[in-house]
Structures are given as C-alpha cells and as structure tokens.
Amino acid sequence: MSKQTGKNAASETATHGSVRDREIVDAKVIVTCPGRNFVTLKITTRSGVTGLGDATLNGRELAVASYLQDHLVPNLIGRDAGRIEDIFQFFYRGAYWRRGPVTMSAIAAVDVALWDILGKMAGLPIYRLLGGRSREGALVYGHANGRDIAEASDAVGRFIEQGFLAVRAQCGVPGVKKAYGVSSARGYEPAESELPAETVWNTPRYLEVAPKLFERLRKDHGNHVELLHDVHHRLSPIEAARLAKSLEPYRLFWLEDATPAENQHSFELIRQHSVTPLAVGEVFNSIWDCKHLIENQLIDYIRTTIVHGGGISHIRRLADFAALHQVRTGFHGATDLSPVTMGAALHFDTWAPNFGIQEYMFHTGETDAVFPHDYEFRDGRLHVGDTPGHGVALDEKLAKKYPYSPKQLPIARLQDGSMWDW
To answer: Which residue among 40, 182, 269, 272 has the highest number of C-beta atoms inside a 10 angstrom radius?
Structure first.
C-alpha cells in the first residue's frame, strides 16, 4: 500500500480517518425475521465506525449468509474500509465463479456497508458522496391488488387517498385460484411457506382480464395517476406484444417483466408491436444481463436492485450506461428488501440523473422497529434525511427476538401440470 505524505495525507485523515482508523476489524452476518427474513452484514472499523449492508435474497437467505460468512468475511478483516472500489473488484474479479444472485447479493452487502462507513467518516449522507441531489424526493409507486377488477380499483383509490401519484395494479384472473401479486390481506409477501406453494396459471384468461382492469381504472380514477402493471415473466414474446398493444389506450407508466429476459433479443418483438413503456430487471445481477436491452433501447426502465446487483459501485456503472441510451432507473423495492437497501436506494435515487421511479411497499411495524431509518413518505415521494451514511440503523437486541423462519417462493404450473415461469 502506498504511503501518503504532506497535505493530502492530512486532508484524508481529517475527513475519512487514518488508514489505521479505517482498518476493518470485525464483520458479522445477522439473520432476523421481523415479519419476514432479512440478512444483514455489519462491518466495524478499528475506530469503531460501523456500516450496514443488506444481503437478503428472498427464499435463499441462508445461501447468501453462508457465502458471506464462509467466503467474504474472512477476506475483509484487516482491509482498508475506504478502498471500496478495490474491495469490490477483489470479490468480483477475483472470484473464478462470477455473478449470480448469491454472489452479487453478498458483494452488495459489503459494498453498501462500506459506503455507509465512508459517509459516517466524512459526516455526509451517501447522496452527497455520489455528487449531490438531482431532485427533491423520489417518486414511488405502491401495490394495489384485488381478487377482481372492482376490488383492485377500490385498492387503487385507497393509495391515491394516501397521496400516491403512481400505483401498480394487479387483479385476480377468473378461474385461477391464486394469481401472482393478489392477496386479500393489506400486505403481500409471496414467500409464505417452508416448501414452495404450487399455483396454477392460465394465460388466455389473463390476457382477457388485464386490459379490462386498466379500462376500469382509467374510468374510475382518471388520467392523472400513473398506473403500472407486473406480468412477472409469464408470457411468451408474442403474447407480451399482444398485451402491450392492448394496453396502449390506458397509457401505462410501464409494463413490467412482460416475458423472461434471459434471451434479451425477445424484447425486440414486443417493441415492434407496441409503444407501451417496458421495464425489466429485478432478477438481474449484473450489467451483462441487460447490455443488449439497454444499448438497443428495447426497454425504458431498468429495475436491477442495489442488493442483487453488487451494490452501489456496480449499479452506478449500470445507471450511467443506461443514461447513455435514455433508459431510466426503476428499482425493485418490495418487502423482500430490508430498509437498509431502501435507504441506500433512495440516496441513489436522489442523486441519479436518469432516475425514473422507485417501488415502495410498506414494511411491517416489527421490521421498521428492527431497522430504524430516517427516510419518510410524503406527497407521493420518499425523502432521505441527511444522516451521515445511508441513514438506516439496526437494533441488534430486538433483531435477536425474531429468529430465522424458513420460507420459499411459490412456483407456477399450467393447468396440465407443466412447469411455468413465475
């Protein structure tokens, strides 16, 4: 490690502590379940400054916890917490087995925790470290769902009454016992059982009901509220093109995950047939998953998350690449991401010049108590505070009261029993 002398060294010591102060002396993985499972990494420096990172991967939490505990944590001890980029490259490029959701979620936890430490040592919120505000508050959308169209419309109305300017709407499909995204309860948590629940899907009936839902929503709520819809990868490219075209009269903010994107070229077919804006990427974990989609402007919003995409360091590259092609961000933000990720995401949203929208689902009161935070919702937007770092803390004593509870995401089959995309 090179030594700094004179004015530069003194300046770094004043703002970020000395190299010895920044030395990582402890890193521990905390798994807790205050309503749902979360994996959190806590890094501590020699000077006592701590940083938190989220490593939650819904339904596969312990896989990431093990990756962190067994492989990354031993390599963190003794390193300089201020060398964020070098540590990211060490864990990403230094690994023969690159990318994948487990690896990138673990790396993200390290990266976000280090940004949190840097902010605390500098006495600055992360958005200022990134370059300062591009906006006052991040536009967010909530989740409205119903067992039928009427119930879904009522739910959209309740979100509008709460001040939301954008709402994602889902409704039940006639003849489908349990459709994705539909719950009779206020909250929606898809990981409900220790072993995967098996659901049945019917594409023709879904394609009939979806346009009727948005026709009703525009009739009931007018044109000023932004409406979004999630297909959750359940259509073939030509089916997705048909749906996107049928929804054009209702001016959706976006149509999300219209078809699986492992084959990025499949979105070319949808683009040929419709001008409905397209969003995809919450299951992506690297810039390579969306390179063709972005550089060919086949999507309008990229949804890759900080927690599953390697942290702030990697997502910043992805967002800059997207900006070159007029693609905006639209981060996933369901309850399977802890407030730590939401805090980090909102700092990123506040800075990112090509920010589009942020998904926002209410965590349980238990979760909010375990992860106290300084962000708040008002006037249809989430606003970050000016707490140094990302502004989210962890009550470790309270977290211990909520032990891990095995839960997995459901699967989908067609009516003949064939496995289908979920």
So the answer is: 40
